[in-house]
Amino acid sequence: MAYKGPESRGHGEHLHSPEPPADVGGLVASAPLADRIDAIELLNGSIMQDRAYRYLYINRIHAEERNALKWTTGYQAKYQAHPTASELYKLLDAANGNTDLEQSKMSVPTARGTATNAVAASLISKDKVGRETFYFLTPEQHSKRRQLRQLFAIIRNVVQLQIEDPDNPTAGSELLPPEVYYNIISKFPVRKE
Predict the structure, then answer these.
(1) Could you tell me which of 38, 75, 117, 140 has the fewest CB atoms within 10 Å of its CB?
(2) What is the C-alpha separation between 187 and 15, in angstroms, rounded?
(3) Number of separate domains in the chain
(4) 82 DSSP assignment
(5) Class of residue 43 by CB neighbours under 10 A (exposed 0-12, middle 13-18, buried 19+)
(6) Is 104 part of any domain?
(7) Residue 95 is part of a domain; what is its CATH number?
(8) Is 51 in contact with 182 (CB distance < 8 Å)?
C-alpha cells in the first residue's frame, strides 16, 4: 500500500499528490487509473450529502444515525404509522446486515443505542405510549427531512453538471450553499492545454 500523507486522510477532501514511482512493474504497470469523472461520481455526491447533514443539523451525523432517520421514514411511508421501538430495532438490525433486510443479529442494545443517538442528534424523536415506545418526527424534524431531501435532489443535479464540465472546479456551485458544495476537482492541478 502506498504511503498517504496526513493531508490525504479523512473524507477525501485533501488529496496527496506524490510523484509517481519511476519504475512501476507487475500488475500495477497495467492497472487502469481513475479519471476526473470517476472521482467526481464517487466522491462529490457523498461528500456533499455529508455536508448537507452538517448544514441542517449543525453536527456531523454518522451513518448509523442516518439509518434511524431513513428507516423511520421508510416505515412511515410503507405503513402510514410510526414504528415501535422493536420494529425500528429490527429495521436497524437488518440495515446493518445486508440489503436484503435479513436480520444480521445486531444486538438490541446496539440498535437501541443507534436510535438513542439519532434522538440525541434531533433526527427523530421517541415517546412512550402505554407499554410501547414509538419513534417519529416532530414537525420541525419533518421540515428538516424535507429540506434534506431537497438538498439531495440539488446535489444529484450538481454532480451531473460537474460530470459534464470535469475541468471546472466550481461547476454547479451556484445551486448550493457554500457549506454544502464540494468539488474534488478544486483540489486537482489545473490541466495544461
Answers:
(1) 140
(2) 7
(3) 1
(4) P
(5) buried
(6) yes
(7) 1.10.10.10
(8) yes
